[in-house]
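RECORD TYPE: inverse folding
INPUT: structure tokens
STRUCTURE:
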């Protein structure tokens, strides 16, 4: 994990947001409660002790427990999240 990248994302965590389609996609992909605040859920996962944050190209990827959250590095938009496939 690149600590500089990780710190940069965490320092700007208040800028995280997503679109209506992003909310629908994340809820569907992770089987979350429809009433859940998806952005707040993602923030909590990113700040979790076991979170692995890395930047690849124009996106950040946050692996936490059994899921991956994808965030655009320039606008802090949560693009999607999905469950990790068993290896």
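DESIGNED SEQUENCE:
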């Amino acid at each position: 994990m690149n600590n500089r990248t990780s710190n940069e994302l965490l320092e700007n965590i208040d800028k995280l947001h997503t679109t209506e389609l992003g909310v629908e996609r994340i809820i569907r992909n992770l089987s979350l409660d429809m009433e859940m605040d998806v952005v707040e859920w993602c923030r909590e996962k990113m700040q979790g002790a076991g979170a692995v944050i890395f930047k690849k190209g124009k996106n950040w990827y946050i692996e936490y427990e059994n899921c991956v959250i994808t965030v655009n590095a320039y606008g802090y938009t949560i693009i999607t999240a999905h469950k990790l496939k068993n290896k």
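NOTES: Residues 42 and 67 are 10 Å apart (CA to CA).
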